Amino acid sequence: MTLLRERMQHDMLIRNLAENTQTSYLLQVSSFARHFRRSPELLGPEEIRAWLVHLREERKLAPASLGPTIGALRFLYRVTLKRPWSDEDFPLPKKPFRLPVVLSLEEIITFFGSIASLKQRTILMTAYAAGLRVSEVVHLKVTDIDSQRMVIRVNQGKGHKDRYVMLSPRLLEILRLYWHDAHPRDWLFPGDIPGQPITRSAVALACRVARQRSGIQKPITPHSLRHAFATHLLESGTDVRRIQLLMGHRALSTTARYLKVATSTVCATTSPFDLLPHPEPLQPPPSPPEYF
């Protein structure tokens, strides 16, 4: 490990950057340095510009995919190397706004019915019933399920924040059934490696298999269940602010995007087409005369 890499790691640690962000930033800077075969300390704006052009033209990365690269280099030069950095020259690309694809209640039922494994079904049901991120559900511990207060404790979710979410009575029944079958001790959903929780990739694989078996054409990932949780709460009349707290969103605007897909919002207004008078029924064309 070079001194520069170690210093950048310490800078990210001091600023409490997420572990995934730290890993991504180090990977981006390493790729940048390997491309030019020199330390980033010897590289400057011209090399950064050439690297971004290379990623776009040679590696065919989409503009939005350059965000992690620009973020990593900006942190390296501005924070670790204390060099001038121009956001005007290297702006973060705007991410395209895409609405989530939401499963209906009927599709949720069909999807869960297509999961053969009790453990996999319990994991994905927990993700939906509590609106958890996949990283949050795989790191649940047995002690996080508080049946006395009917809450689930989420330890150090995104942004290193703790929060509580509701414990559905129906989910509690399923968790008890799963516990009597698997008898987990520490991690609620242990993985194949002793002492470690199930991996996110294993949950994603279970999700893909269940989608194929269900015959549902919509894309389904573990995060789709979180989208469905928020949307279905909105459609049942739950306040947006309360959903924000349950989801662990920092900004209310993040939660408010579900207003754009909830049927209670989209379908609540009458289309002007329905206000038009009903036209007279179309008369069938006259039959041609018969000559034989």
TrEMBL record:
Bias (Pro residues): 278-292
Tyr recombinase domain mapped to chain residues: 98-271
Residue span(s) of domain Core-binding (CB): 1-81
Keyword Transmembrane helix: no
UniProt-listed Pfam families: Phage_int_SAM_4 (PF13495), Phage_integrase (PF00589)
Gene3D superfamilies reported for this sequence: 1.10.150.130, Intergrase catalytic core
Organism domain of life: Bacteria
UniProt keyword DNA-binding present: yes
Region (Disordered): 273-292
Key words of the record: DNA integration, DNA recombination, DNA-binding
InterPro entries: CB, DNA_brk_join_enz, Integrase-like_cat_sf, Integrase_catalytic, Integrase_recombinase_N, Integrase_SAM-like_N, Tyrosine_recombinase_XerCD
SUPFAM superfamilies: DNA breaking-rejoining enzymes
Family: Belongs to the 'phage' integrase family.
Protein name as annotated: Tyrosine-type recombinase/integrase
Species name: Paraburkholderia solitsugae
